[in-house]
Amino acid sequence: MTQGPRTYAPALFLFLSHGVASLSANSSQGLHPLLQKMAEEITDGNYLNAFLDLIQFQSSQPWTADLSHAVLAYLNARNVAFTAPSLQAAVEHHLEQRLYQPQQLREDLRGADAQQFRTAMQCLWADRKDRWEVEGVVIDLGAIRKQALQSPGVNRSLLLITLERCFQELSSLECVEVLGKLLRGSPGSFLQPDLPERLPPGLRQDAFRNLSAVFKDLYDQTPARSQGALYSWMAGVLRASGAPDGSASWVSAENLRILGRYMVHLPLEEIMNISPMEMGLFISYDNATKQLDTVYDITPELAQAFLERIGSSDFDMRNASTVHRLGLLVCFYGDLELLDATLARVLLHQMIKCSRLRGFQARVQKLKARLLGIATENQALNETLGSLSDAIVGLTHRQLESLSPQAVDSAISTLSQVSGWTKSQVVILSAKYLAHEKVLSFHSVSQMGVLLAGVGAQAFSDMEPRALAQVLRSSLPVSALSPAQQQGILSKVTGAGAGAPGVMEVPGALFKEVSLFDLRRELGLNSTVLKEKAFRRSQALFLFELLSQTSGPAELLSAGQLVKGVACSHIDAMSADSFLALFQYFENNLSLLSPYQVNCLAWKAWEVSRSFMQPFLLAALPAHYLASMPASRCVPLLIGLGKIRLDSLVLDPHKRTLVLRKVQQCLNNSIADEYTVDIVGNLLCHLPAAIIKHGVSPRAWATALHGLRACAELSPEQGAAVRLRLLEQHGPPQNWTAETTKDLGPFLVFFSEDELSSVATKFPDILQQTASKMVGILPPKEFLWAVFESVRNSSERGSGSDPSPGCHGVEVPSSDDIFKLAEANACWAPQNLRCLEEATFLRSVELLGAVGGFLRPQLTALKEKAIQVWDTPSNWKEHHIVSLGRIALALNESELEQLDLSSIDTVASLSQQSGWTPGQATSILHGFLEDSGYGIQDLKSYHLVGLGTTLCAMNVTEISLIKISEFRVVMARIGTLLCSTPVLAEFKRKAEVVFGDPTKWSSSVLQELGTIAAGLTKEELRVLDEDLMPYFQPSAIRCLPAEIFKELSARQIAALGPENAAAATPAQRRQLRAPQLQSLQRALDGAKARPSLEAPPSASPSQTPPSQSRPGASASRALWLGCPLLVLVPTLPR
Known about the structure:
The chain is mainly α and 1134 residues long. Helices cover 55% and strands 1% of the residues.
């Protein structure tokens, strides 16, 4: 490969070093004034200013070698003697200071002259040529600019100096262009409420409009209080321009257009004062509908005010063309009197977009239900099905069951695109559609869209091979399919006769389900075809090892997720040159690497080049390595750790405490300003409560709070510290504004029930919207009770017209209540749930089945209601069982035996729930075998996957009957089950039939087996090669009985790696002897398995290999990329 021009480190050093070797006495004669100025800046140590002079010169003059000589001669003539090394050292020190103290960059630009500042600004908005070459050296200003916009602290300095100086030096249009780039490339923490105060008064109209467009684009990243401040600024400018002729309000059609999404901040009185003519003019704009489609946070009151003003204009609100223009205002359409069916269908079609609203979904659902009633009045549902838009998700099971297959087939284009179907509805509709189609073909699959999730696993397996091959080549919605359905598809891959698709035809996400057994049989594998595939780690380990025999590491590491398979042996085998050249691939894919792989990477970096090593990798080495790191490396350490998830790199809580102790030491137990917040990044989430409470300065607090909002989970102690700071800053919640409450939403979980009660009373909608965003987590009981009370207090619920026996005087939940409450439904007493009205239960059963906080008495009450509504379990159909979710856990063994479990998809829906007793699992397993007529020896691979946790209920004899040909393709799935030791041991015996003697298993096999590997005997474990120990899955380590785990040798335990060592249970640890415990601690700490291979942290740093020596190579890569205005980006040969 021909090597192109090189892009090296500091431009000044490179350009001038061309002339170091051959200075001439007359070189400085006739030196261009701009270069003389550049030389003076170098003399004064102002390297940024000199670099800006260089860029300015280059923009109009060609650079030649004699100019390097001339500049150096000019410096020599003034007794400023520079050699290449001394200039390099000076520039490196300058760069380091700008990276580690980004405030200084602001000072540099504050001290730059007008031309230099103008050049810097022009570089930022790309008015200069982005890339130019001088004597084989490439300056890539585009890459420099990109890095500047992504560097902690540097971006902030550029933003502040732009606000401070730009409008004095450049035109307002140019400055707005720069601000736009900086704000779009920055986190939302830059958009603080004081930003408008920093903007100059009297902006030109075109500059104001452009800047307003930037704020509108960043609306979703802007905190609520900042949105209010920006609205006030925009409204102030627009108000100053005066009201349109004949209007009492400044809110003209054009001003509404300029406000964009900020129109939702208009006070109600302002909206009501808009003249009908201006409102009509605005609605007539071509882009008005697009604008109204984005007002996601509009409230019902404001929406209805806008609708009233539109209605008062010349637009007829009952005209279909008007309805099409309303955007999200249609979600609050109010005048339903005398509405005809045609307009109701138009409204329903427009209301598809209402799912984008932030909140008020219960209100929207109620409106849709009323419109659905109007649209279907006096008409058969079969005839109107395709014209009802997404309101059809409100149809009950009985209504869907009443549909004819022909009606479903006719409406499939609508049904297949609607979002919001429940799983049970999808089951009903897909069965109706396939009843019409008769067979699952490529055509029917391509038509079904979201309804494909309701197709049975066996139907996929029964597909004609050529049709399946076409399906795999199309855009198959793999994520919507259950594991059993996915295996149904894969069961047809390979060995299914002529036309059957091969393994390599399996698309990206589904490829992850291909078995290691099938992969090992596949021929013609190469990194190119694998690049777009998703891999399990076992697949990647096998493929990387296989392909490394014919392909180089660069090719493999650049092949997408294949990097998951790089083994320590591959990393150790790399030469120093190769490792340094390839390190970027590892760094770019850290999230795909296991803690063990990162540990191997860290050891290699330590051995190859301490000066090159990224400091954050020290956290993967034993704790004393990080402890001995000098203070001069603190900032790159903080930057590196701040960009990763610390809890996924350091799994041992004790070691994580030591790492955080070093972090606190680097911070001096305080966060002084917003620049420090930028630098620590994600580390904010791990700082101890004491620093949050006392160590974050008032100046840094607003920025820190923005960062804390993004933390996945704060500890109770951290949360208590945040709460105290917020109370100090904002006072008690009863004094908060709506904007403050919105901004502090994620922290409401840390407040007491009494404090939250005032929020529930004052801002119930905001509280409920906050709760709705907490997906996948179980909030504290106090928070759920506050949400519960807010819904109850605002509910229109009344007692039923004919209460069930025992329900007189009992509060009966409504459908709206259940919809709004989500996880807070866990606050209902069992008696409230028993008294649900039948219609409410039918409409809400799936929502209730998804509540994670229900206890057994509540689940039992809901099960009893299901039996009351649907009759005994023997009469339930698949969609009934699927809809139950967690409620099914309350079914006793007798009730489970009554269910029709002939479909593996029904069983799969049950096995997805966790918490079955052994007796219940046995009932489900035997119920499926009896109802389906299958013997265990008849089970297909997709049956095994669908049975899931109920496989753990099999006895040793039953497991032995499973066909090896089916078992071998789903071992990875079975290896996720946490079964008893005897069951795992029997599965292990079956694995031996597939992969041979355990003593000969490879790392990929061990990883593939998962918990099945916990079935190894003492004797088998004792002889297992210690190099294989890191390739157990952590779940397998946890499943090893303590009396088996203790049989591992100290060397085997030392080789477990950090992740597996962290998986050891307290019971396992108690059985270990002192040498074993010591080995376990070494593995937790990230030590090498053999202590003799470790170099002590005090050892002399290894040197960068000669072939890597280059200008600036001694500084860390983070240094060069951290100060992008001052460096050039390396262009390494691939």
